[in-house]
Amino acid sequence: MFYYEFNKHGSFKFRATKVGKDTALSQIIKLVEEAQGSKAPIQQLADKISGVFVPIVILIAIATCIITYFLVGFTPALFWLSIISIATVYLAGKIQMKDLLL
Fold first, then answer.
1. Would you say residue 83 lies in a domain?
2. What 8-state DSSP symbol labels residue 3?
3. Whether 40 contacts 47, CB under 8 Å
4. Residue 10 lies in a domain
5. CA nearest 95: which of 63, 60, 47, 61?
6. Phi, psi at residue 48, to the nearest 5°?
7. Which of 22, 41, 61, 101 could link 18 by a cystine bridge, Cβ 3.0 to 4.6 Å?
8. Domain, as residue range, for 57
9. How many domains are contained in the chain?
């Protein structure tokens, strides 16, 4: 019996050819679980690069603020630069912590 047939004249018998873990749905679920549990090689490479790149960028931003302060002195522009830099460092740290917790 196929999904588009109707039983109009009483009962019918059918035989299950596959059950449990042998069904197509079970195999699809297994493949999805395996895919979710592993990372692609390119994603692993990107994680390694960002683990080095992000701290370097943060250190450059902090160094820029410090050098600007000593060369120019405290100005309103430096104040806003400091606020933006601190917010960037904070958000970058939050994003990295979130990635580590997942």
1. yes
2. T
3. no
4. no
5. 47
6. -65, -45
7. 22
8. 39-101
9. 1
Q: What is the pLDDT along the chain (102 residues), one digit of tens a residue?
A: 455 566 677 776 767 777 777 888 888 888 888 877 777 788 788 878 878 887 887 788 778 778 877 887 777 877 887 788 778 777 777 766 555 555
How far, in Å, CA of 83 to CA of 99, rounded? 24
Residues with Cβ within 8 Å of 99's Cβ and at least 6 positions away in sequence, in order, are 47
Closest by alpha carbon to 33, among 44, 41, 45, 21? 21
Residue 15 lies in a domain: no
Q: Answer yes or no: are the C-beta atoms of 58 and 96 closer than 8 Å.
A: no
- Whole-number pLDDT of residue 98: 59
What is the distance between the alpha carbons of residues 79 and 86, in angstroms, rounded to a whole number? 11
**Pair of tokens at residue 94:** 């939050």
Whether residue 30 is contained in a domain is answered as no
Helix residue ranges per DSSP H, the chain: 24-37, 41-72, 76-101
